[in-house]
Amino acid sequence: MDLSVDLDTRGDRVGAIYRALLAAIRSGRLGAGDRLPPTRSLARDLGVARNTVATAYERLVAEGFLDARVGDGTFVADLAAPAPAPRHPGALHPRAGWTFSPVRVSGETGVPPYDFRVGIPDAALFPFDTWRRLVAAELRSGAHDPGRYASPAGHPALRAALARHLAHSRGVAADPEDVVVTHGTQQALDLVARVLVEPGDVVAIEDPGYPFAREVLASHGARVVPVPVDADGLVVEALPPRTRLVFTTPSHQFPLGPPLSLARRQALLEFANRHRVAIVEDDYDSEFRFTERPLETLHALDRHGRVVYLGTFSKSLLPALRAGYLVAPRSLRDALVGARQLADGFGAPHEQVALARFVADGQLARHLRRARGVYAERRELVLAGIARVPALEVVPSAAGLHVAATFRGPVDEAAVVAAALAEGVAVEALSSYAVEERVTGLVVGYGAAATASVTPGLERLARLLGGPAR
Amino acid sequence: MDLSVDLDTRGDRVGAIYRALLAAIRSGRLGAGDRLPPTRSLARDLGVARNTVATAYERLVAEGFLDARVGDGTFVADLAAPAPAPRHPGALHPRAGWTFSPVRVSGETGVPPYDFRVGIPDAALFPFDTWRRLVAAELRSGAHDPGRYASPAGHPALRAALARHLAHSRGVAADPEDVVVTHGTQQALDLVARVLVEPGDVVAIEDPGYPFAREVLASHGARVVPVPVDADGLVVEALPPRTRLVFTTPSHQFPLGPPLSLARRQALLEFANRHRVAIVEDDYDSEFRFTERPLETLHALDRHGRVVYLGTFSKSLLPALRAGYLVAPRSLRDALVGARQLADGFGAPHEQVALARFVADGQLARHLRRARGVYAERRELVLAGIARVPALEVVPSAAGLHVAATFRGPVDEAAVVAAALAEGVAVEALSSYAVEERVTGLVVGYGAAATASVTPGLERLARLLGGPAR
Predict the structure, then answer these.
(1) Is B369 on the interface with A (CB under 8 A)?
(2) C-alpha span between A71 and B236 (Å, rounded)
(3) Interchain CB distance below 8 Å, B344 and A187
(4) I want to staple B188 with a disulfide (CB 3.0 to 4.6 A). Which of A319, A422, B76, B310 is the partner?
């Protein structure tokens, strides 16, 4: 038998022989039924004591890799034959009804010179030094009981800081116990879908709207019905009568832009109360608003406890922080916390405490003030750039990190987006957010685009669209 | 009208008046239909220009809080009446079939003097200084594209490091693309359930077993069938014929302890292949093994691509890191990555890269070597302590951070656990992990118990059980 044994390794000769034999069995060099050499002869070949070999054999027998047959010898067990390396495609397939494949996201592609993609904040504005100091301060041996399992609702300090922040900045009245910390809006939506959606339930989404909301609701069995959007936001009158849940973006309709009007807000709340509907209010980028004061949130206007309010730090700080939250009616809180426990246990306490300090110490407000100024400037440049293109008509909005513009005449949207990208200008097709509505145009983000790149980028776009800029 | 306006704030008098009026409307001091004072008289009262008040009114009219009736005056709009603070219990309730409420976990209770609770590693062993340095090094402005959205599968560096680590330490053959990073075993299980379980599917779990596995599978509509466990692990012959998925802990049956025998492993794989069953192999604490070499994993023995392998850093490092992984057959990989994208987007890249360095640079191996020595000593003390109690019979096992012991005679398990806790000794009731099996005894963890506390803690337990120790 050709057995390669490395007897120099740390003097553990039994272990070395054991591992060599196991490797031979695994690789197939020793096959099922093969007889092993007698311990005496292998010991002589290897220059070790016979007992050393015998002990290695005994372990492999005890573990079932070898069979010792009394008076006959030692054999490789039938059961021990090696599995081939799993290069095969596998025999497990998703269940019937699972249709979602992962979508390539912004971090998986190159960065274009003129990056007007949607939903990307400017990482250069983020106070990394402050954040690193806060995180490092919480990453210490005695802090936050790191060997134990923490509350799925989130650290009390962060829930308290968020409750205060939301009351002050958004008029959302919540006790800390009403807040559930999440990894972002997507997880919040998933938790809501888990506890509210029964297979076949009618769920209304905005059209155009946020594709991952549609997908996660559908993945829980919802019958997702797209509802049109106009200049006052979601068309409440178009909600299907058997709706169980409405997903809406009232501050800054995603991706078109208009806020949901106050009349519509009231109509939606009345509809929800009359038909026993849940409203999921996604307030994803309202921190960047460019009017004195936004409309009241649905949560603040809600008299009956039918609104789940979602917020995220992915736009206001960074997606990489993986931090968001929801505010839920009392009657739903335990179920949502339980859903988080089943989904992924809990979030890292040291990060939550660092974030609590960031919020409570005024760092968040300071960052938002600074970022708002930068984004306001870019926004003006974007609006001016679009205004110079006769083919584009901007959709009015008052908040956020992007604006949408529709085409005034017949324009081949896909061709424009592709031609722009070929010139280094990444804009998004409005129709890519639509389900049934026939809406074409462009969505232009200004979170990722450096201020100096905005005007030249939009001039390139203007040339493609036959605008006046050269 | 009693309007409190702070006209000192940053000189923005329009904003100050606007905010004061809005606060009055919100608080109910100005009710729907109330007439506002003429701009001239309010301006005089406040000592500001009339135009300042008029501009504030106009904003509130534009936003729908006020109605301007030509020739009549300005009134609080009907729609603008304030919502009461949401102290009401809410009107949303979990869907039919949602039965799970959050379970109190180890970090939400006090720490008992003799802490033999299960699944808690010793945080004092974790190299916090190294970890903090690694995390801080990745938390810098230019690194990892933190403004963009990253791959839901996990950072390529971590997937590569895990693939190498698993090949070396567990004989799991996987390419980096076969690895999906998760927040731990719980999330991995959730992803598997999402893509494999249809409502009504029969899913087999071990009894006694891991309660959160049962709960998350049931929450996705599985008909969960408990299957008994004996000294060879899961009783494969007892699997129901219509099983679609089996959840098992072959290295160290949770919580009883025995490894799944090689014969049973083969029988399980054959059963899975014959009946087209998915096997979920949870290898949750096999890093701490106290024999030379463990049995091959199901994943390594699988010839047909029917095994999804789950691992976690919650036992080998810390639960607070929120890090785990799964290795999936190719045929299921896209669906699982998609499920992660819908569940919570992706994990924080800077942490994943820090963990990749920790694994690839040998820090993980170094930590495991050291921790294994500490836990081996505690384990010997636990086994010796249990051996001194005639009423307890230890269940043989070879790995992990806890041992189970059954009662030799009739013992009131709940009374023993409660009496022990009253003496500062936290042990767990074996029956708390069982569904249908009538099994009583104690589960004794030694991850959290300081080495010096083990013997005195078990002596207290022995006294309660009428043992000889004093």
Answers:
(1) no
(2) 33
(3) yes
(4) B310
- Is the pLDDT at B469 greater than 70? The verdict is no
Q: Is residue B70 part of a domain?
A: yes
Q: Distance between CA B317 and CA B249 in Å, rounded? A: 19
Residues A385 and A419: beta-carbon distance below 8 Å: no
The total of other beta-carbon atoms located within 10 Å of residue B71's CB is: 4
Match 């019905």 to its residue by tokens.
A225
Confidence (pLDDT) at B70: 75
A313/A378 same-domain check? no
Nearest to B184 among A321, A322, A344 (CB): A344
Q: Which residues of A touch B322 (CB under 8 A)?
A: 344-348
- Distance CA(B188)–CA(B314), nearest Å, equals 13
Range of A76's domain? Answer: 10-96
**pLDDT band (50, 70, 90) for residue B79:** low
| Number of folded domains that form chain B | 3
A379 close to A241: Cβ distance less than 8 angstroms: no
Q: Is the peptide bond before A255 cis (omega within 30 degrees of 0)?
A: yes
- Co-location of A208 and A335 in the same domain: yes
- Is B137 found in the same domain as B89? no
What CATH number should be reported for the domain holding residue B453? 3.90.1150.10
Q: How far apart are CA B373 and CA B366, in angstroms?
A: 11
* Inter-residue contact B23 to B6 (CB < 8 Å): no
Q: Do A391 and A308 share a domain, yes or no?
A: no
Among A109-118, B139-148, B404-413, where is mean pLDDT lowest?
Answer: B139-148
A80: confidence class by pLDDT, cuts 50, 70, 90: very low
pLDDT at residue A259 is higher than 90: yes
| Number of A–B residue contacts, CB under 8 Å | 396
Q: Is the CB of residue B244 less than 8 Å from the CB of residue B382? A: no
> Does a cis peptide bond (omega within 30 degrees of 0) precede residue B94?
no
Q: Does one domain contain both A134 and A82?
A: no
What confidence tier does A46 reach under pLDDT thresholds 50, 70, 90?
A: confident
Q: Is the pLDDT score of A266 beyond 60?
A: yes
